[in-house]
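user: can you give me the structure for this one chain? tokens are fine.
assistant: on it. calling the predictor now.
[tool input]
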Amino acid sequence: MTSVAETSWFREPALQSVLALLNGDGAEARVAGGAVRNALMGLPVADVDLATTLLPEQVVTRAATAGIKSVPTGIEHGTVTLVVDGRPFEVTTLRRDMETDGRHAKVAFGTDWQADAERRDLTINALYADASGEVIDLVGGLKDIESRTIRFIGDAAQRIAEDHLRILRFFRFFALYGSGRPDADGLRAAARAKDRLVTLSAERIWAETRKLLAAPDPSRALLWMRQVGALTEILPETEKWGIDSIHGLVATEQALGWAPDPLLRLAAIVPPDAARMEGLAKRLRMSRAETARLTEWAKAPSLPDEVTDVGFDRMLYRHGTDGLVMRLKLALASARSGAEGDPLAMRKSARFSSLLKRTEDYRRPVFPLTGADVVEAGVPAGKRVGEVLRLLEDFWVERNFTPDRAALAARLHAMIASSL
């Protein structure tokens, strides 16, 4: 018998109080899905979700009687969130799919645990733990956890037909939990249904893709996505660019302690073309911050083979740090990948490391003059003020930001005098 009864998260009083509340008087509740999966795989457990034979209204009634706060987060789909000691627990009534169209499902509530398990996507996500902590496996998830196999429940093509997003979930869970080769039936089903991905909302596609790219090492999953054509469907920009650099980037992240960065990993597999990146961000409906980062990377200048610190500071002043940080990290990862036994690559790696630190520590100097100073010196307000200010700023930058306010004021008066 497999059990999670002795795990710290299962013994927490908040969870135990919810289990006590929802079990009894003919009703049953079990911990469902990710918490059970992660516990069995020795991974941290964060969110704890439960499934119950109670209807949503019955869950709300029991919570109210016990003085527990309930929030109808998805009550039309059977989900109520109970909050105990500040901890949220999503409680969902057992369901059976009545109608699916690849994007949405119409469900009927029920009390059949087998039917509830079989409507889920992957075997490792359909495990339950009852109130005693005993793990209940109705679809073969325990065996797949042992072998780290990511497998659809039942017929893979049918599971994907119910929700096309499951193609991306299949590869995301392979990146997170799988080993070896992905399940052959799942690969075939994903390949045959890949053109259905375009029917999904951009928000769902990007949210799932971002989660995949945030996995500790998404390189193998991306390779298989490319093999079956799913990657080209969602990111056509990768088709002629390739994904070979992902492995070196992940190795560098792990070696240097960088946190996984989905946008940096995306930048590693798409061309640094500003117009195409703006189009990609718009198509996937990225946030403003994500769009800005991606386009700043694409617009950032290429890194010269040789550049002095002073010359690089000018580049930082003109272009900002965000895009150049991404450029440098990708360049450093590429150099490190070929550094072993190659003195030139080793020197490049060391130089990129130095420039990266310089960029991360950079504080942009403040130009000492303003438009008001130019007007006060005698230049009439208007377009000419900006032109003069830009000429002075260029003068200041080319002299390594050293001329002070007095020197620039003198330069300004000389410019005005020479134009009279």
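assistant: here you go. The first strand starts at residue 29 and ends at 32. Strands lie at 29-32, 49-52, 69-74, 79-84, 87-93, 95-100, 105-109, 127-129, 135-137.
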